User: What shape does this take?
Amino acid sequence: MNAIDPSLAPEWQQAIFRVLKAGDVRQVAYVPDAGHAHVIRCAVADPDIQDIVLTTEEEGVALACGAWLGGQRSVLLMQSSGVGNCINMLSLLQSADIPFLTLVTMRGEHAEFNPWQGPMGRTTQAALELMGVHVVRASHADEVEELVSAALDEAFLAGGRVAVLLSQRLIGRKNWARK
Amino acid sequence: MEASAVMDRRVFVSSLLQHLPDALVVTGLGSSAYDVFAAGERDRNFYLWGAMGGAAPIGLGLALARPDQSVVVITGDGEMLMGIGSLATIAAKQPANLSIVVLDNGHYGETGMQRSHTALGTDLVAVARGFGLREALVCDDLAGCESIARRILARQGPLLVQARVRADEPPRVLPPRDGPYIKNRFRAALGLRPF
Assistant: This one.
């Protein structure tokens, strides 16, 4: 594994991990994405947090249910394309009234190079809302901390199901040139 | 499914659970939920009525949250196959207290007994081992229940058991369908309060 100085990660990514840690999130489930890289690295390094790499995002929805049954808070980190993989499993959260927090890095938006990301990216918010998940969007770095913190409270203090979309403009252009 | 699979699913599940009075049990949907309910209603049962493919990852989240408890997922071959990748996710974490018992009748019982992949060539134990679950075994004899229960209670897993059961449909006995009730009852049994 490459040693990457955590202080070099964008401040908004550092803020996300601070909020999760302060909010006593004990299970961090993910299908990797560059925008989640810092939080994943921190979760892997934190002895009090279980990091769970998933083969498909819907496992993380079910995992959130199991964690809550056992008294722990979890978060699901995924890319917008992964939301489509979750659709039927999201019914579990409504049917059993399970708190849920997910952070979704967006594709198919700002300066997207890959048209195959478009169809799911354009329907990510609507798909989540159709399945009963409250969606908020972070477009600017300076609002990420407050929005994630508010979403965490909505999930685990009010029993809500909340997604924070991290917009592609926030994450920045993907560099398609081979290094 | 070979003709040697002669275990009665209800007898197998009740024989297993009688050794596990305190285990936390997550079921699949359909027959496996009915089997667990028929073995005796318990606050420590979480039944699925949907979310197919979710039983094993629910068990993982629960097992990670409660390493002090033995967690047992009891599901069917069809439900396990739908979430088969979760065995890789479980293997990556190696939760010592998680056991997955697949009641394999080689068929989708709830929808009219169509053949499943395990009747058409898929070897669940080989799949589990390939994913990295080293403790994977077949049970086709009720006499094996006690040793499986011992392994579950030893929490030296993760463990996967392919329990080969007869493809029949015992009378339906329906567990509660009220999800919030099942959830709150389960959490209360662990001393967890509503938010």
Helices of chain A lie at 11-22, 37-45, 58-69, 80-85, 87-96, 118-130, 144-156, 168-171. The longest helix of chain A spans residues 118-130. Strands of chain A lie at 25-30, 50-53, 73-79, 100-105, 134-138, 161-166.
